[in-house]
Amino acid sequence: MPAKRKSGAPIKSSTKTAIPQPTYDQPRGVTNWKEAAQWLRVRGIEDIECITPDFAGVPRGKMMPSSKFTGNTSLALPSALYRHTISGDYPEETANFRYEPRDGDLKLVPDLSTLSSVPWETDPTAQVICDVVNSVGQEVPYTPRNVLKRVLSLYASKGWKAIVAPEIEFYLVAKNEDPDYQLHPPKGRSGRSIVGGQGYSIAGINEFDELIDDIYHFSEGQGLEIDTLIHEEGPAQLEINLRHGDPIALADQVFMFKRTIREAAMKHGIYATFMAKPMQGQPGSAMHIHQSVVDAKTGKNIFSLPEGGPSPEFFHFIGGMQKYVPAALVMLAPYVNSYRRLTPDMAAPVNTAWGYDNRTTAFRVPVSDAAARRVENRLPSSDANPYLALAASLAAGWLGIINEVEPTPPTEDTANEGLIELPRGLLEAVALLEGETALADVLGAEFIGLYAGVKRAEFETFMQVISPWEREFLLLNV
């Protein structure tokens, strides 16, 4: 939402002051196949959706009867799943993007702790998030969940645990079956479409009471925990804040929340969209990420010294964000549309400045006590795959700590105006990712090669579409 100091637009107050201890360390559900079979039987579950995120964060997988699920059935998906674009196209091979000649099978391994109901289905249905392994049981390094696990293992090697808390913004829009037409906010219970400028408006939330009730009910049915829900600045733009916890668990929650919110909206005859910039002239939608690091044994925040002041690791984490996040931006802003959000005068960051309680910066340090000291990354857009966005952000912070990268001085000025220091488009961002060897070491060179190839192909698909701007200004003028 707008955070321009000069305009006097509203500035959010900090609400996240809880001590950043892991919330989801203990299994969130069942822990073994015997418990899974009992869980399914007690609930009368008939079908199970075995899902895993692709590069776009789209759920892919298989559905099967519950008897098959507990009967040691092998679950396989083709490796080409991680070599196609959001539009379903397959890129041309390049030096860094290659196809598996056999298009061999990858195996799905259910993470039973994620087993939950699918509350919007009429028949008793469950879902489970799966990891991906190869034919000999080794984790496939380029899948989103495994990329994040790779980054977290680096923190674990130092005896640390990363703690995160995502904030997800999205728009409700009226149904629109023709992509040539602009999107519009839906009508609420008053029968009128809500307008912009309704930040923190309770009336704005009340316009969609029944839909929000369903979001809460669907979330409760899956064991998803919503911290707060607010109305943002855009028309029918909402934000859901999640409680802090383990990055894998929180990425799982965002993955499931997106699906949940879309399903709840569809039930009420409207769309929910996580596009970064769905409506011209309106604020974009972000996925802000609050981050801290704790000692795995003591639970103490390593960003704070014993007497309460900021530690060297805190400043180096910020320095790493400033140095490496621009090169990883394509994982935080993954589509052509994402870069429409990262522009001046639209409340989004346009450089790598940081500051204390300054929402115009890319990296904000909220007001907190020493135990809750954290860094908020305000660059990711809500269209990002949560696993990859968390992996990129935490990888940058890790590199900063390990390499002792010093940050610039904090700024108290308005930092989201004027010169743009970030990549201005998708291809530039892809090139930066491929050119940063430090990120290849942390994220995996195979992942970067595949991901970059997919992103380039998506740009080429975009270039095949003639926009209204071109018809308006070029048709009769050139």
TrEMBL record:
It comes from Ectorhizobium quercum. This is Glutamine synthetase family protein. It comes from the Bacteria. The keyword Magnesium applies. Pfam families: Gln-synt_C (PF00120). Its cofactor is Mg(2+). The keyword ATP-binding applies. Residues 1-28 are annotated as: Disordered. Residues 12-24 have a biased composition (Polar residues). SUPFAM superfamilies: Glutamine synthetase, N-terminal domain, Glutamine synthetase/guanido kinase. Residues 144-478 form the GS catalytic domain. GO terms for molecular function: ATP binding; glutamine synthetase activity. GO terms for biological process: glutamine biosynthetic process; polyamine catabolic process. SMART domains: Gln-synt_C.
